Amino acid sequence: MKKIYKTLFWGGSLLLILVFASCTSYLDKSPDSNVDPTAAFKNFTNFQGFVEEMYNCIPDKENNYWTTSWNWGDDEMFNTEGDWHMTHQVDLGNFWAWQAENQSQSGCWLDKGSVNSTSTDRMSHALWPHAWYCIRKANIGLANLDKMTEATQEERNLVAGQLYFFRAWWHFELMEYLGGLPYITKVLSSSEKLTLPRLSYQQCADSAAADFRRAADLLPIDWDKTVAGKNTLNKNQLRITKIAALGYLGKDYLWAGSPLMKNGAQTGGSKTYDYDVNYCKKAAEAFGELLSLVESNQTQYALAQFNYKDIYNHIKASDATSCFSDIFYTTGQGWLQPGSTEAILRGTYPGVNSACYRLAQTFGPKINQVVEGDNIIHQPTANYVKFYGMANGLPLDDPDSGFDPTHPFKNRDPRFYHDIMFDGFKFVNGTMPAAQENLRYLTLSSNALERSLNNGSRTGYFIQKLVPHQCNKYDGMYNWSGNLECQLPYMRLGDIYLMYAEACAAIGGATAKASDFSKTAEQAINTIRDRAGSGHVNAKYTADPHKFMDEVRRERAVELSFEGYRFNDLQRWLLLTEYPYNVKTSQEFDRVESDDFFKTNDPRNARVANFREQVIVTRLFGTKHYWFPLKIKDTSMYPSFGQNPGW
Question: Is residue 37 in some structural domain?
């Protein structure tokens, strides 16, 4: 369902789109007196049309601009021509750059100077303006539920559940970056004096939790199994479900219980394991309720399989029924929207190659235009790639891991080979001119051809988790014939297992569990590792609560790599300011094997010499960097809406 807001009940939505055609902040409200309550809200068709505009407002982080930026932790950097992107601006400590007024180009999905809530253009959507618009819209809908007189109870529940979810979700997405805010639960009059104070993060989270819980109690697991949903049978995959509401209920509580939210912004890292246990218990119960439904086969969700015939080319095995890669991109599947069996919340998608064409040209080397397009390259940092441990499940720095710096790419976690392109990787499969043959296999040792700061890899690695390496001039997968679609889910099932493990670990370590789910924190982590074929968490880590939490966090780094979670994780763990999480490094080494070695041998078996790291960037952050600054024009409007400390 590529255009959900047009698929269902479009006729009823036209009336309200005319009323709410421009996105404005709640601080800059438009009158709502033109809404016709006798027509707009009287039945499910019209009311659902009103609701569906909010789906269209969800920003697409990956496809929000010609070249986009969404990984702002220690995980990624760009080549030097990408320094204007938010990724590098965060490195500099310039957190003002998220605001449209401070962007040199409109490349950040958090804010834009011009947005349109009804547009199908991926560049017309941003978090800040759409959030306030949709919060207001949700409140208008909730205030008019009593006018839904020509509807069944099921239809009323569906509409109310979506409205409660969206009111909470848009608040939560803002809170992740900005902290506690006013939690708006009514339609504010344009003539009303603004006095709503900023709440603490936990106060705001409590309000969001109440809305997420209401949504979970009202919404179905599967819209296809409702009477109303049968009108759009097999086209309901993007609709908000009970599972999405439970997932965000747990996430909201876990974030509220995290070290930053309990202890406040501070440096030193001494509070990184200090969680609010009461919030974590609530989080574990919400996740437990969700996972019990999944594992008892009561939902349409399941972990996508990690079963590959050819891991480097992401070719799934003949007996695989789903594919891990399909969570992030699809190709040769008739423009199928990514997500597989695992995506719980996705935005709408314009589809048919129009969005991902430019994105797909930003993950490989630009030397001699082997990858065409703008000279912008997403690159994984070497310090982050180190989180990919060994196939036996141990981290690289464990003395029993078996890691050998003379064979650094051997026997690594299977996800390393899926996600990361390293020295000797066969980058081009198809026919290419003889003069370009030196670009078929990646040359990423120190001072090699593709280590150029400008159009190669600054770090010694490339990423292919989200976009396959065949997106190059000669394999042509980003061309129309590739049927390529790329999109990041906002929430997926793998993340639920990891958040459940973290919440339980904060309560009582590896053996802790929720009352409504059978698995312990350790078993939840091992469920994700079993999917990938990686070794279980070793006993030496399960015995110590802090060491086990470190493994939970390392697992998040690997499983959720480059999906946009890392900055918020380091932030809420009070690690954003701390070494080694405040540096970005390159991988330096010398090749021992000849170029011919890689033509007939697996690159993971190659020998190297002088394997070492070098620091590229050190991020000089203080306590103020734990939150982004709010817009000055908004914080200046009334005293109770204060600025974040230090800004």
Answer: yes
3-state helix/strand/coil string of 565-624? CHHHHHHHCCCCCCCCCCEEEEEEEEECCCCCHHHHCCHHHCCEEEEEEEEEEECCCCHH
Looking up residue 75, the CATH number of its domain turns out to be 1.25.40
Is residue 156, in this structure, part of any structural domain at all? Answer: yes
Residue 193's pLDDT band (cuts 50, 70, 90): confident
Determine the residue type at 300. Q
The crossing angle, in degrees rounded to 10, of helices 201-218 and 153-178 is: 160
* 165 assigned to some structural domain: yes
Mean pLDDT for 21-44 is 55
**3-class secondary structure, 150:** strand
Report CA dihedral (471, 363, 464, 446) to the nearest 10 degrees.
120
- Quote the DSSP letter at residue 314: T
Per-residue pLDDT, 30: 39
SS3 content of the chain, % helix, strand, coil (to 5): 40, 10, 50
Is 306 within 8 Å of 445 (Cβ atoms)? no
Beta partners for residue 315, in sequence order: 310
Average pLDDT, the chain: 92
The pTM assigned to this predicted structure is 0.94
Residue 473 has pLDDT above 80, yes or no: yes
Confidence check: pLDDT of 8 > 70? no
Rounded to whole angstroms, the Cα distance separating 55 from 48 reads 11
Dist CA 402 CA 396 (whole Å): 8
| SS3 state of residue 485 | strand
Q: How confident is residue 634, by pLDDT bands cut at 50, 70 and 90?
A: confident
For residue 539, the one-letter residue type is A
Query: In sequence order, which residues have a C-beta less than 8 Å from that of residue 247 and are 6 or more positions away?
Result: 286, 287, 290, 344, 345, 491, 496
* Structure confidence by residue, pLDDT tens digits, 357-392: 999 999 999 999 999 999 999 999 999 999 999 999
User: Where in the sequence is the domain holding 210, given as residue range(s)?
Assistant: 4-240
Evaluate if residue 9 carries a pLDDT over 50: no
Report whether 380 contacts 75 (CB < 8 A): yes
Of 236, 246, 237, 195, residue with least CA distance to 216: 246
**3-class DSSP assignment, residue 345:** strand
Give the sign of the dihedral formed by CA 616, CA 461, CA 86, CA 358: positive
* DSSP state letters, 408-437: TTSSB-HHHHHHEE-TT-B---S---GGGG
**Could you tell me the two tokens for 400?**
């029993």
* 3-class SS of residue 639: coil
State pLDDT tens for residues 560-602: 999 999 999 999 999 999 999 999 999 999 999 999 999 999 9
pLDDT at 248: 99
Which amino acid would we find at residue 524?
A: A
The sign of the CA dihedral 145, 150, 153, 155 is negative
Contact in structure between 371 and 365 (CB atoms under 8 Å): yes
Output the CA torsion sign for 274, 91, 487, 391.
Answer: negative
Q: Can you say whether the dihedral through the CA atoms of 589, 365, 563, 176 is positive or negative?
A: positive
Per the domain annotation, does 465 fall within a domain?
A: no
pLDDT at 26: 30
Residue 213 C-beta-side C-alpha neighbours within 13 Å: 11
